[in-house]
């Protein structure tokens, strides 16, 4: 059975007018449309709209998210060229791009992270229909800022087999319009002609309110600076992409993934009612590169950290497609709720580190800081997040990570 989530909307009469909300005997819900908040007065407990209207509050939640980054050379381009550029982030962007790919013959994707790599693989499937897909990024391989070098390089080869022309170690340093084609000049001397360009290089957290409202913005990670309870000022909380929070286990962080938005929003809501809980539940994120390769990650996964990887040969069950078919759930943070917990390997099992040139079918990669595991990538290993979450929460120093890898049952049978 297909699982569906629904949003229930009330009739217009259900909602109160914002100016009447504070005086209504039984309270209510008001939605202000067509305006934005330009200032929050923390002392007076008022939100000021661009119309000049002031809305009072006892508690306030800021969940402004982020806006997709652009490239300076494209941002400063003329209007005709900009019409051939998509900043890929929203559902509408996807819908427009889906229609566009049926009309154009070539697309260049700028960005080698999660979104850029997923999109490249998805569009690469249309290569057999004549669509030329190029992916450009400055790193040495796909998801090079997250995966260790050997796994990033292996992933890049996988992306190429999906029909994508991958160009690593290159930045876009110029853009012109020649006829109907966008011509991108790269730092390696190459020029690429495309019908359309998609930019997927991350987001900037929306912190427009900071200056006018007296909120701190983190200079390293961006986002509103909040404490472990997600509070920016007294009675003002921030959740989601815009929050730079203090993780009691891993330190100062800002996270841009779906599960974090759910977890942080729920925590902020609880704290607004007086719970006073710190952020400790490690949210996860996931990415699929086609139906055969996917991974889930938790904690600080930064390729500049020391890593230890333990791998095994994958089976037909070790794919994103198999997980969806087995659980009926495509949102990976939900599949762990319906999965059967694995049994740990026996003591005589012998996990091993990867060998050069090996097919990395499935495995686990540990990210270390001062010999403590601070991040974990589960490579084609699914529904093991409770185990990974427990390891990071314990924060222990392990002498033999092969022993830790046994907990994920890489070689055992379910």
Describe the structure.
- It is globular, with a radius of gyration of 24 Å.
- A hairpin with a 4-residue loop joins β1 and β2 (46-49).
- The strands form seven sheets. The chain has a five-stranded parallel beta sheet. The protein has a five-stranded antiparallel beta sheet with strand order 20-21-24-23-22, with helices on both faces. Strands 1-2-3 form a three-stranded antiparallel beta sheet.
- The protein is built from eleven helices and 24 strands.
- It is of the alpha/beta class.
In short:
The protein has 414 residues and is of the alpha/beta class.
Please state the CA-atom Rg, rounded to the nearest Å: 24 Å
Q: Into which percent range does the helicity of residues fall?
A: 10-25%
Shape estimate? globular
Cα end-to-end separation: 23 Å
Strands in their spatial order, largest beta sheet: 6-13-7-8-9
Number of strands: 24
List the helices and strands and how they pair.
Blueprint: E1 37-41, E2 46-49, E3 54-56, E4 60-62, E5 66-68, H1 72-75, H2 79-82, E6 85-87, H3 91-100, E7 106-110, H4 114-124, E8 132-136, H5 149-161, E9 164-167, E10 172-178, E11 181-186, E12 191-194, E13 196-199, E14 203-205, H6 209-213, E15 224-225, E16 231-233, E17 236-238, E18 243-247, E19 251-253, H7 258-272, E20 284-288, E21 294-299, E22 307-312, H8 320-327, H9 332-338, E23 362-369, E24 372-379, H10 385-394, H11 401-405
Parallel strand pairs: 4-17, 6-13, 7-8, 7-13, 8-9, 15-18
Antiparallel strand pairs: 1-2, 2-3, 5-14, 10-11, 11-12, 16-17, 18-19, 20-21, 21-24, 22-23, 23-24
């Amino acid at each position: 059975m297909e699982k569906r989530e629904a949003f229930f909307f009330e009739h217009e009469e259900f909602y109160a007018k914002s100016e009447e909300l504070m005086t209504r005997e039984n309270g209510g819900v008001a939605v202000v449309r067509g305006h934005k908040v330009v200032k929050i007065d923390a002392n007076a407990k008022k939100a000021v709209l661009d119309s000049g209207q002031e809305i009072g509050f006892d508690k306030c939640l800021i969940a402004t998210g982020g806006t997709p980054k652009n490239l300076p050379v494209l941002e400063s381009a003329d209007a005709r060229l900009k019409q051939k550029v998509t900043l890929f982030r929203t559902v509408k962007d996807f819908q427009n791009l889906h229609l566009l790919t049926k009309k154009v013959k070539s697309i260049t994707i700028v960005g080698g992270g999660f979104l850029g790599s997923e999109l490249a693989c998805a569009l690469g499937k249309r290569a057999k229909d004549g669509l030329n897909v190029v992916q450009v990024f400055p790193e040495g391989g796909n998801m090079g800022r997250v995966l260790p070098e050997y796994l990033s390089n292996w992933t890049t080869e996988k992306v190429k087999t999906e029909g994508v022309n991958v160009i690593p170690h290159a930045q876009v340093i110029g853009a012109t319009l020649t006829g109907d084609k966008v011509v991108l000049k790269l730092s390696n001397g190459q020029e690429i002609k495309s019908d359309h360009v998609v930019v997927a290089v991350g987001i900037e957290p929306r912190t427009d309110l900071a200056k006018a409202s007296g909120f701190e913005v983190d200079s390293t990670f961006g986002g509103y600076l909040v404490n472990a309870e997600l509070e920016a000022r007294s009675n003002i909380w921030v959740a989601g992409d815009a929050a730079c929070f203090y993780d009691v286990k891993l330190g100062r962080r800002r996270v841009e993934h779906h599960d974090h938005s759910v977890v942080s929003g729920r925590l902020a809501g609880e704290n607004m009612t007086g719970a006073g809980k710190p952020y400790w539940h490690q949210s996860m994120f996931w990415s699929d590169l086609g139906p055969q390769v996917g991974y889930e990650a938790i904690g600080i996964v930064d390729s500049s950290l020391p890593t230890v990887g333990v791998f095994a040969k994958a089976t037909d069950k070790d794919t994103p497609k198999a997980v969806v078919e087995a659980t009926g759930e495509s949102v990976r943070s939900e599949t762990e709720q319906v999965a059967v917990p694995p049994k740990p390997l026996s003591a005589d099992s012998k996990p091993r580190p990867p060998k050069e040139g090996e097919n990395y079918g499935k495995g686990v990669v540990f990210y270390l800081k001062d010999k403590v595991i601070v991040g974990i990538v589960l490579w084609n290993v699914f529904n093991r997040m409770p185990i990974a979450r427990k390891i990071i929460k314990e924060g222990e120093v392990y002498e033999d990570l092969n022993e830790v890898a046994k907990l994920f049952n890489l070689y055992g049978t379910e």
